[in-house]
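Work Package 3 committed the consortium to producing structural models of liganded targets before the mid-term review. Because experimental data for this complex are still outstanding, the team generated a predictive model from sequence and the ligand definition alone, so that downstream docking and mutagenesis planning could proceed in parallel. The input record is reproduced below exactly as it was submitted to the modelling pipeline, together with the SMILES string for pyridoxal-5'-phosphate.
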Amino acid sequence: MSVPSGAGAAEFGEGGRSRREIVRGEGGALFDASGRRFVDLGATHGVNNLGHCHPEVVRAIRTQAAELIHLGSGYANPVRSAFVEKLLGLLPPSFGRVFLSNSGTEAVEAAIKIARSATGRPKVVAARRGFHGRTLGALSATWRRELREPFEPLVPEFVHVPFNDPSALEAAVDERTALVLLEPVQGEGGVHVARPEYLRAARAACSRAGALLGFDEVQCGLGRTGRRFAFEHAGVVPDVLALAKSLAGGVPIGATVTTPEIEQRFRGSHRSTFGGNPLSCAAGLAALEVLERDRLTERAARLGEVARPRLAELPPEKVREVRGLGLIWGVELRENAAPVLAGLERRGFLAISAGATVVRLLPALVIEEGDWADGLTALAEAVGDG
Ligand SMILES: Cc1ncc(COP(=O)(O)O)c(C=O)c1O
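The resulting structure, written out as tokens with the ligand in place, is given here.
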């Protein structure tokens, strides 16, 4: 969102922003109208973990589109059932319920509503630098002031505590707390990895206070960190889990996963017209099958270890810190990230930022090994420019 564009046809909030036109995607790469190839080091904000237009996802969409695109949640559908079963089969056995929606912010919104309703409590504890989406509930859990301020007053009873500080978290969780909502790896906030003991302390504080522990793995889940779910690194199982982005191989989807016990305590109703539509479920089923069959989680872990020493070599006079694991990395610069992103783009690599000074690397888990190595070289060159 920026300055309005004034006259002429334009998308809301995109005025004045010049964007490269992209017309095609294949695997880990995007192509402009002239046919120039760019390696997508941002996986279009973490959506295209399987790369662009994965043939099996495309096939599933085509087949399903000819069969049944939309069906209200009042009817059963075998594709939706198969997808739900597949997703729950990847999760720890405590999870047995999933609410399907269309985006990350909706997945978080549902987590907040489930927690407030099931506990009968109002308070949500989130972390500084956290990002959870832009609808009013999810935005209330989001930290960045400039995203929040124009829309205030936001939803009451949301508090933010410093990330990776167990004592501050423990002090904030009390008998009025419905939900502690954390990203095991903060993405938009600059790629900050939760320490395992922090997540364990969050688990203990929630269990002690009768609050629900919610993890937002919209960006870091589904293989990206080198484990199927990022919470596996800490061995901590949440009560509610939000997923989206890559879950349906590029088709809009959101999923909020929880337990049957929590469902039993839920009062009221929460629904979505398009949530769980057969088209996104068919794409999701194909995407999860590819993720598992092609062992993309293990691949992310391996390519992350290729990156680690290369990123550690970046010059400290230009780079303040490098953080990450698997295929989610943040390179925090001493200056603005924009010139480095431009330098990468000139070299044929599209990366994204996370805040003003962090270059974020979030490539497809299927990125070709040569492209990944070349991308790391291009990054070193772009950091060295100027
Ligand atoms: C951790 C996290 N949660 C929620 C969201 C919101 O997802 P969406 O843009 O699909 O609403 C994002 C988006 O970047 C995210 O990274």
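Reviewers should note the following from the model. The CA atoms of residues 185 and 220 lie 6 Å apart. These observations will guide the Year 2 experiments.
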